[in-house]
Amino acid sequence: MKPFIIALLVNNHFGVLTRVTGLFSRRGYNIASLSVGETADPATSRITIETRADEPSVRQIVRQLEKLEDVKTVSLLPGAETVARELLLIKLVVPPARHSALFEALEGFDCRVPYDVEGRLILEFSGSPARCRELLAAVSDYTVLELCRTGTTAVSTLGELTL
Known about the structure:
Alpha-Beta Plaits; five-stranded antiparallel beta sheet; four-stranded antiparallel beta sheet
């Protein structure tokens, strides 16, 4: 099974997300990642779903999504022509004596530190899902108090979806 990213444009009102995710659960497909947000048109939302399946199963998911009433468009984003990103917020316990070691471990990651008070740091990072996994490995020696990770959001460089 390999990962696939599906992008949908849907009507922006209550119940739509439930119907979309319900389709996955009723058919036994797992959602590895999910992100939702309004588009430039407040009446339309974009849903980005990452799932792992074989190709025939993903094609069937796409066909079933296209049949849902509030779904305007569905696109299976092509891997090589897709820019995918996640956002990480990580709250760490870092004693002042270990700050330099942490920042050395973060070398090469474009992290922001919006909060640094009394041995607690919050790191902010945006990058590909693979790069996010690398960052998490880089901070694994520190105590993680809280980890917030958005789902994958992605856009095709081929420009299939609008709005």
